[in-house]
Amino acid sequence: MLGPTRMVPAVPSLPVRFSEACERNKEPILLVLRDWLPPRARVLEVGSGSGQHAVHFARHLAGLRWQPSDRAEYLGDLRERISLEGRRDLAPGARLADPIELDVDRTDQWPQGPYEAVFSANTTHIMAAASVPRLLAGAAQVLGPGGLLLLYGPFLGGGVPTAASNAAFDAHLRSLDPSMGVRDAGVVTEQALSFGLEALADGEMPANNRILVFRKRGATS
Ligand SMILES: C[S@@+](CC[C@H](N)C(=O)[O-])C[C@H]1O[C@@H](n2cnc3c(N)ncnc32)[C@H](O)[C@@H]1O
Q: How many angstroms is it from 38 CA to the middle of ligand 1?
């Protein structure tokens, strides 16, 4: 059953966040990224959290150029993980940049781009509902024509029956903070369309998660 990402220290003596969920989902997500990312893709990750995804993908996708980011409160641990684990055993030609501060609500914090892809895992149900369209708008802004936005996590709706675990997770989140909640994929898709993104895929992932894939309009091919 899907629960909130639990953050515990990876090594007791180090204050680095560690997510058990990331350990379970990093390989299934990697397989999806292999299918979608173009060679030598420049990717901006929003809400990198513990940084485990960033390290894993940079170790397995040759030529990848991955830019982790997160809000200020997560940045210290994220930087520590990247400096401890993200500087060795990278795939040939892969580069893992120093994490940058990015709160999707801060228009001044979005980097210049262009990126071939924006990736974000388990963020849309944590950030405030009003922040989700800001994530979509920011992604559309930094993507080059034909660039991809990949959103991984639990979603409701969008023509997919709601899993009991996701309904329970949604209720739990809302009880903690009414601005949080598992988002409706149909609503997210409508919002994405309004920012010049088109919906390409809605892929089923383990533990009732999904990956929504969008593409910025304007590609020549
Ligand atoms: C459950 S954690 C997921 C972390 C990581 N991506 C993972 O899959 O384990 C939620 C993440 O969303 C980020 N987040 C929440 N609100 C955000 C915002 N307004 N802008 C950017 N990131 C945000 C948090 O800082 C945190 O890193």
A: 25
> pLDDT tens across 5-16, in order?
555 544 444 558
For ligand 1, atom 27, which residue shows the shortest CA distance? 49
pTM to 2 decimals? 0.93
Q: Which H/E stretch holds residue 97?
A: none
What separation in Å is there between the alpha carbon of 125 and the centre of ligand 1?
Answer: 9
Mutational test site, ligand 1, from 127, 134, 180, 182, max ligand atoms within 8 Å of CB: 127
Class (C level, CATH) for 39-216? alpha beta
**Where in the chain are the domains?**
39-216
Q: Work out which ligand 1 atom sits closest to the CA atom of 134.
A: 19
Contact 152, 123 (CB under 8 A): no
The DSSP code sequence of 129-181 is GGGHHHHHHHHHHHEEEEEEEEEEE--B-TTSPPPHHHHHHHHHHHHH-TT--
**pLDDT confidence of residue 192:** 98
Ligand 1: which atom is nearest the Cα of residue 135?
Answer: 20
**Nearest C-alpha neighbor of 154 from the set 131, 136, 180, 134:** 180
Query: Is the CB of residue 52 less than 8 Å from the CB of residue 79?
Result: no
Strands 197-205 and 209-216: antiparallel
